[in-house]
Structures are given as C-alpha cells and as structure tokens.
Amino acid sequence: MNIVYLNGNFLELKDAKISVMDRGFLFGDGVYEVIPVYQQKLIALQHHLKRLKICLRKIRIHDPLKKNNFTKIYKKLFKENHIQDCLLYLQITRGSGDKRSYLFPKKIKPTVFICCIPFTWPTIPHLEKGFTAYTTEDIRWAYTSIKSLNLLPSVLLSQEAHEKGMTEAILIRHREVIEGSISNIFLVKNNCIITPYEQSCMLSGITRILIVHLAKSLSFPIEERKVMIDELYTADEIWLTGSSKTIVPIVKLDGKRIGTGKAGPIWKQFVTQLFETMGIL
Ligand SMILES: Cc1ncc(COP(=O)(O)O)c(C=O)c1O
Predict the structure, then answer these.
(1) Would you report the helix, strand and coil content of the chain in percent, each value rounded to 5?
(2) Close Cβ partners of 199 (under 8 Å, ≥ 6 residues apart)
(3) CA 244 to ligand 1 centroid distance, Å
(4) What phi and psi, each to the nearest 5 degrees, are found at residue 45?
C-alpha cells in the first residue's frame, strides 16, 4: 500500500486525484522539493524548506505549509508506509481555477501533494566505479534557480543521457558551464575546489551548499566563479552533486578521460565526510 498526502487527506496513491483545471497540470504553475530521508531523518531539512519558501515567493504563491503541520504529515507518511529511507517529494501548485486562463484566479487554494519515493542510498564502493557524462547546450529557460514543475528540458536531457549510456548531461551557455541537467557540478584543480557561481539560470543545490561548507571546514581553497567549458577537460576531478546522488565522480567527459580516469582522492575525502555529516557512515 502506498499512502500519499493530498490537500489535507491521506489516501492510497490510486485514490489521489486532482482536477484537470489544476494549474500545475495546465501550465506547470508550481514548484517542488525533494528531501532525502535516511532512517526517517530528513537530511538538511531547513535548507530544503528555505529553498521551497524562496521559490514559492518568487512565483507568488502563499506558503500553504505550516511547519508543524508538515512535521505531522511526513511522520504519518513514514508510519503508514513503513518507511526508513526514501525521497520525500513535495509539490505545491497554484491550485485549480474554473477555466483555463493565464492570469492568476482571484480566489484560489494551492494544491499540496506529498509522497515518499522509494529510495536506496548509493554506497561509496558503488560510486567509486566512476561515471561518464557529456556536454550539451543548456536548452532550459533563464530562471532555473526556481525549482519549477516545468521540467520538460530535464526530462529530454535525462532520456538522451540514458540512451547514450551516460549518467548525465552537463549544461553549457555560451561556453560557460552552468550545472548538470539534474545536478550541480564541481571541479578539482591543483587541490582547489571550483564550482560555478550562483545565478538565476542555476539551481542552488542543497548538496552544493553542504559541499561548499565542507570545503571550508576541511580547509580546501574554494572558488565559486564563472567556469568555462575548456576547464572541464583539464580538471583533475569532476563531481556531480545532488540530494539523491550525493557526490558522483565523473571519470570520462565527451569521450575524454578526466584526471587519472578513476574516482579521485579528493572526491573520496569529500564523499566520506558528507556521508559522516549526514550520519550515513
Ligand atoms: C538542475 C538541478 N541542479 C541541481 C540539483 C541538485 O540539487 P540538490 O542538491 O538540492 O538535490 C538538482 C536536483 O534535482 C537539479 O535538478
């Protein structure tokens, strides 16, 4: 049985229904969050809630989630679904109007959907095998710092990567490296940790924030700056980061070997520390 939360009710997944007039369905008019859960502990919860609030504010939806209410909801979902580890998925849309109109309806109640996506945490030996990626033009809109429901470009890019037998596409705008199609990117060069700076066309990943903190606490030099595509090929290490990925070492990019062609020693240090910080080791 898969119990989900929809607008105040706990329902079996097959019974959770929304109106076809829901603006999430019609326009992708809403935002989402994905919070990783380890043994019923929500990892970096405050960071995720803060990002959700910011995204709601940017698209002018009043936050319908009262903190206590949210705590009760996820605890009940874990209990009902006998969940230890999962990805907690939250989706908030502007709600449904009585006709299809671009303008915000005057009186509208946001739709709130929360569910547990089954998830197995990656292990360090699995990650250590190393993964491949390719670069491609960033086909998304200019405000990808908003975690919006408009994910068609990411769907197409993920499918393309899968069909190429690769982990992910790395997105480039005018030779500038932005991020992975569903991750942020880090480079290591001469022991310095480098990551593209935050801008409106990049999602400020929570894992990225944790890694920047980690670099500071481990006394590694860290540069958050403009990164150009040529720097990728001469990097000692490349990592892709995300809540469900943790830190993925990329050992081959566009068919070219990165560094030694194996997961690097600095990746090993960071992933071990990250797992320890999250209480996973
Ligand atoms: C475009 C994009 N960038 C970065 C990330 C990583 O974000 P986080 O670390 O918060 O999972 C994601 C995660 O889905 C993403 O879709």
Answers:
(1) 30, 30, 40
(2) 145
(3) 9
(4) -55, -45
pLDDT (tens digit, 9 = 90+) per residue, 104-160? 999 999 999 999 999 999 999 999 999 999 999 999 999 999 999 999 999 999 999
Domains of the chain are 3-118 (3.30.470.10), 124-278 (3.20.10.10)
- Nearest-5° Cα angle at 19, 15 to 22: 125
Q: Find the angle CA(70)-CA(76)-CA(81) to the nearest 5 degrees.
A: 130
Q: Which residues of 107-126 are buried (b: 16+ CB within 10 A; e: fewer)?
A: ebebbbbbbbeebebbebee
Task: Kindly report, residue by residue over 15-58, the tens digit of the pLDDT.
Answer: 999 999 999 999 999 999 999 999 999 999 999 999 999 999 99
Cα 148 to ligand 1 centre (Å): 12
Query: Residue 235 CB: number of other CB atoms within 10 A?
Result: 21
Residues near ligand 1 (Cβ within 6 A): 179, 182-184, 203, 205-208, 241-243
Q: What is the pTM of this model?
A: 0.97
Mutate to test the pocket of ligand 1, among 119, 183, 202, 270 (most ligand atoms within 8 A of CB): 183
Answer whether residue 103 shows pLDDT above 80: yes
**Does 68 have pLDDT greater than 80?**
no
Dist. CA 45 → ligand 1 center (Å): 15
In this model, does residue 67 exceed pLDDT 90? no
